[in-house]
Amino acid sequence: KELKEKEESLLVCQQVCKHLQEEVAEKERREEDLKRRTGRSESELETLKALLSQTEQEVLMLKQERELLKSRTEQLQETLRQKVQSEDSWRDKLEMDLAKGEARHKEAILKVREEARVELELERQKQQEVITKFQREHEELQQKIPGLISSATKSLRMEMEILEKKLQDAQMKVAEKDGDKEKEIQSLKRLISELEFQLTMEKSNNESFLDKLRKEIKHKSDELEKLTQEKTQLIHTLSQVQEE
Predict the structure, then answer these.
(1) Which positions are tagged coiled coil (predicted)?
(2) Residue partners of 224: CB distance under 8 A and separation at least 6
(3) 159, 80 in Cβ contact below 8 A?
(4) Were both Cys, which of 17, 48, 66, 151 would link to 174 (CB 3.0–4.6 Å)?
């Protein structure tokens, strides 16, 4: 009867030991799973940080392009201003040449009248033709000047309007890109903050759970060791009983 009781106790002890070993293996497997999940979350966080850095680099490049476009626009405006000044200078020079031509023409007429009084009739017709031709050319030139000035001014204005429109379009595009990038950066920052918070909470929970799990494993290990000792003792006692 005592031998039978010892064998039953040994069987129960073996079953408890097996159950505890299974629980310890399950706890260790859950701990490894938590470590893998934590590593995966950290990898995702690093990827998002790299994406944020890339986005910030793109924003910096867009700002540099905007500054370059602004500098180019200022250069074009300066070039247009110089062209306008050049056109104004050309118009003043042309008017001055016309005035000098008129003055020289008047001096020539007086000089011819003084030197050619005797041949006044013959020379008058010739001079009249020359005067008429010169006047006609002068009138044609006077008529052409406003048209040339108007055409040049109109061309410059059209070019200025086109450049201003291109500048406005470019500024709008740059502003839109800046706005989109800023929104994307804010979204990524919020997402990273949320993930960092979730990761922190998950790490805290995992650490708490791991601590609890370690304590349970230690407790189970102690129980297992104790039961192992009891098993050994029972086996020893059973051996003694069998010998008796």
Answers:
(1) 17-82, 117-180, 210-244
(2) 17, 20, 21, 24
(3) yes
(4) 66
Instruction: Name residue 79's amino acid.
Output: T
104-112: Cβ within 8 A, 24+ apart: 105/131, 105/134
Nearest to 44 by CA among 225, 230, 195: 195
Taking only the tens place, the pLDDT of each residue in 99-109 is 787 777 677 66
Say which DSSP state 117 is in: S
- Angle, to 10 degrees, between the axis of helix 120-243 and the axis of helix 2-115? 170
- pTM value is 0.41
Give residue-wise pLDDT tens across range 192-211: 788 788 777 877 776 777 77
Residue 86: φ, ψ to 5°: -65, -40
Residue 229 C-alpha from the chain's centroid: 68
